[in-house]
Amino acid sequence: MTLTGFLILLLIAAICGSVAQAIVGYSRGGCLVSAALGLIGALIGTWLARLFELPYGFEVNIDGQEFPVIWSIVGAALFVAVLSLLTYRRPTPL
To answer: Where do the domains of the chain lie?
Structure first.
């Protein structure tokens, strides 16, 4: 994979991670965190799709590598939801 392809992959992963954070309503970090969430979401999402034998749907081809956009968003949303349940929230003062 070329450097340009890798940067495009990170951009698409960041968009998928941002959409997942917006769906769940929990946002921590910036663009790099969103990109990491998108990549982790792609791993979780494709694992779920293979486990339940579901179609991949919308995939983007980047330098010969397929990136499942829909499953990346679904996997990242599940991951962010679990993270939001596990993290401690300080009560807001009145």
So the answer is: 11-86
